[in-house]
Design brief:
alpha+beta; 4-stranded antiparallel beta sheet; globular; Hypothetical protein af1432; 3 domains; about 400 residues; single chain
Length: about 400
């Protein structure tokens, strides 16, 4: 009997009866063969997203695509994507400047605590759910009071271990995204824990692969993809972990068009939290320095996210994410129409193209004696009496600017 199987679940001893593309488009000489070597697995992973196996002529798989379970989703958000009615309308109760000290403490504590949590699991200890909640709660409270302060600090900080900072940043972005979409605090907490823990399975991936500077081989990529299963297993065996959180870990590498892994789920087969996690994970990865890739500007990363709507990501969620983050995200560098350079301080919710900024370089790229704060919802002119607007987003480190020197 033939079964449809994601290539992530293939193993030696299976009989491949058909592919997801014509045989002639692949290097396989026979239309039907037994998987006998690691090279066979590598080739199948390189050319196919899924294949069909004949369980009468070879061993079976642990999961078949047609048997993928119907996963729990969040009904508030599913309805919101249809009617745009928020469950909760949040308002800032502190200014960005007022919130910065609390946000700074939450960020520093979270980075340290997550490192300890992951190292404990790596050493074979049980995941401490109370410690996880202890990381999430201060971030959650800070972003509910004001979402800009934490986003600013996250962009400004010098990141150390990518795995740990990526988890914390994912958590914060998830809260900000959920807050923007009007989720109640209880659901924001679930989303935050899910994004913080979704890459927990990486503790079982060799550090040499995680930190490799060059392109991964197909065999190495197969090992990396197994972090999903490892993470789900850790979360399933953790007392007090709910189904939504486990499903975030299970589905954050699924893609809206079915091209993701491990289940090749598509559309609303993927819970809405998983669809959100996919966007957040991709955005933060692109805007972070990784062993094999320098950080992109937030502006460039958002352009990529926009270009992948309808394929990798749900179009409605992409639109919401772009509105949440802003065209020029808080903490990013921008060049003005007169050549001066600024850091984005805050978003203007009604005019996303015109945020609040701090000018730090003049038209000749020389440091200003006094940094000038401007809210671009007001009209400003340059020395030639022309309107002063943002011209483009800049890459991190442009003009040798060290963002950590510009805390408010």
């Amino acid at each position: 009997m033939d079964h449809k199987v994601n290539v992530a679940y293939l193993k030696l001893g299976m009989y491949v009866s058909n592919l997801d593309r014509p045989w002639i488009d692949t290097p396989f000489l026979l239309e039907g063969f037994s998987i006998q070597t690691e090279d066979d697995l590598s080739a199948l992973s390189q050319y196919c997203s899924y294949v069909y196996i004949d369980t009468d002529r070879g061993i079976g798989a642990s999961q078949y695509i047609e048997d993928a379970p119907r996963l729990k989703t969040n009904p508030y958000l599913e309805r919101f994507l249809q009617d745009n009615r928020k469950k909760v309308e949040y308002e800032n109760t502190r200014s960005t400047k007022e919130e910065l000290p609390s946000a700074k403490v939450a960020l520093e504590d979270a980075s340290n605590q997550v490192a300890h949590i992951m190292e404990d699991v790596k050493d074979g200890k049980n995941l401490n759910i109370e410690a996880v909640r202890g990381v999430v709660e201060p971030i959650l409270d800070s972003i509910i009071r004001n979402s800009e302060a934490y986003m600013w600090l996250s962009m400004m900080q010098k990141k150390s271990a990518y795995t740990y900072s990526h988890s914390v940043d994912n958590c914060a972005l998830a809260i900000a995204f959920g807050r923007f979409m009007g989720l109640p605090k209880k659901d924001l907490r679930t989303l935050a824990i899910g994004l913080l823990m979704m890459d927990m399975g990486n503790v079982h991936v060799p550090e040499g692969i995680l930190n490799k500077k060059g392109r991964l081989t197909e065999a190495e990529y197969r090992i990396v993809k197994k972090h999903v299963g490892h993470g789900v297993e850790i979360l399933k065996t953790t007392k007090g972990m709910n189904e939504d959180i486990t499903n975030i870990a299970l589905t954050h590498h699924e893609r809206f068009d079915g091209s993701g892994y491990p289940g090749a789920l598509q559309g609303t087969q993927i819970p809405v939290y998983g669809r959100m996690a996919a966007i957040i994970d991709c955005y933060d990865a692109m805007t972070s320095n990784r062993p094999y890739s320098a950080a992109k500007s937030a502006y460039a990363a958002l352009q990529n996210i926009y270009n992948w709507r309808g394929t990798a990501f749900q179009p409605e969620l992409v639109e919401q994410f772009l509105q949440c983050i802003g065209v020029y995200p808080t903490g990013s560098l921008v060049e003005m129409t007169n050549g001066s350079v600024a850091i984005v301080l805050e978003q203007n919710l009604t005019q996303r193209m015109r945020p609040k900024i701090m000018l730090i370089l003049d038209e000749d790229k020389a440091h200003l004696a006094e940094y000038k704060i401007m809210n671009l919802t007001e009209q400003f002119e340059d020395a030639s009496k022309l309107p002063l607007n943002i011209y483009r987003g800049l890459d991190p480190g442009a003009y040798d600017i060290d963002p950590t020197e510009y805390y408010l």
